[in-house]
Amino acid sequence: MTPLVSPVSGRPLRPDGPDALTDGSDRWPVLDGIPYLRVGREPLVADMLAAIAAGDRETALVLALADQDEWWDGPTPSEEARRRLVRERDALSLRQAMDLLALGRVGDYFAHRWSDPTYLAGLALLDAHWTAPASAFELACGIGHYLRDLALRGVDGSGADIVFAKLWLARHWVCPEPSTSRARHEGDVAAAPASRTPRQAAPSRPGGGARQGRVDLVCFDASAPWPVAGRSHDLVLCHDAFYFLEPKVEILRALRGLVRPGGTLAVGHVHNREAENLSAGSGVTAGEIAGWFPGATVYDDADLTRAAAAGRPPVARAVAELGRVEAFSLADGPAGTPGESGLLQPEDAAQLRLNPLYRRQDGGAAIAWPSERYRREYAEGATYRPRLDPPIEPGPEAVRRREFVALPERW
Question: Bigger pLDDT: 182 or 269?
């Protein structure tokens, strides 16, 4: 992980027992390996540390799982639900866990993110600028979708988010641990398509087999002083979140400060303030993109999605051509080799599952949207067909369109 410093003093943090960090003065909780470093939460930090000191790690977790960001307008999950979640986490599915956290529409978004068009655009952006990174840092990583895909291809990742509960879901349900075996899904499972060419092979370790990257997580507020620093990553990314973040110029400076010389900064799905968008947040304009990212390669986010589904490289655009697109994506760094990452196809050993948005009927399958809001946001840009006629098979095109997906074991 990127070395951590106190967001208050700026001094290096070191372990203070198994469940805390200290700079020699202030102390911060570490829960299930996730440091909680949010400033402005002093009473909550004190309560969590008191619970840890009393040997009550469950209560410390229950407290952390109720914490949210300022954009959240949903309910707070009950203490009873949070305690059940902590106690039964090894038996619950990801969807059950998100229900207990009362994530609502955000839970729908997370559960089906592996096939939504904006996620596919992000994969296409990373693939187009792939330089075989050894390490990556993702700001606003949510429950770790991209970190999982990167780790399965041998990249060591560090993820940060302001909401501890999202990171905790990543730790237990989404991001693979190197020692965890991937079991075969039950139900709509099919063998992976033919192996990739050598250019698309996943990174390997001596002795054979794909090397699985490590994923570390940290909770902090990007609008406050950052507890991470140092040019320590080959790839730094922020996807479908930059339009939420303020102050943008300072956050962009901090992101650039984490990129190693010769590395890449990838910022995906930045909402255009001059076009209609369903999501909340503070969008930007094409002119601001041009000023903040001089020399970067810029894309229409929707074209990235179409390119991924079609199996072609995306087409870079001049910023002046993107005044009315819904969202921008960009990469600031060296040119990559599209198709080399393998991100747009599952790892060779993967077991594929019919996209769970489909409901089987009459030998075929049809999309059943989880909500009307989800339909309005994603139906127009979806790459998967609204109906599949038999036979339903996971060929390469079906995988690219995300009609079949590789989901976590306990999805």
Answer: 269
